[in-house]
Amino acid sequence: PGADQSVYFPYTGKDKRLAQFHPAIEELLYGKVDNNEHIGSLSDRRKPIIFSMARLDVVKNLTGLVGWYGKNKRLRSLVNLVVVGGFFDPSKSKDREEMAEIKKMHALIEKYQLKGQFRWIAAQTDRYRNGELYRCIADTKGAFVQ
To answer: Which domains does the chain have, with CATH numbers?
Structure first.
């Protein structure tokens, strides 16, 4: 309910897939160099992806998800984690809560040494590309969590 079916349709709808976004999504998920759109890396592309996209605030609790993932060695051996939300640089935010969550996210990445298993993607605004991003995650046999 509430999702635009022309944008958010099942990954099995191959004839409707937006293949023009695949190279950009490939870079977004697997590019090796950190930039202003993504940080972190996924070393093992065979692993499914746990994926979440949300505002970077206490209520949405992306940092809680990252902390939970970081603590669970078995889960980390089985799947990668990709989160989409917020900025990487706290000075780019005007919201104190978001600034605190950005700092917390960086601390969790360091604390749990998530390099190779975790990708943080900055907030995305192109809903058509976002729809295809969900489907590309599904292609990995991954899951969306909220």
So the answer is: 40-144 (3.40.50.2000)
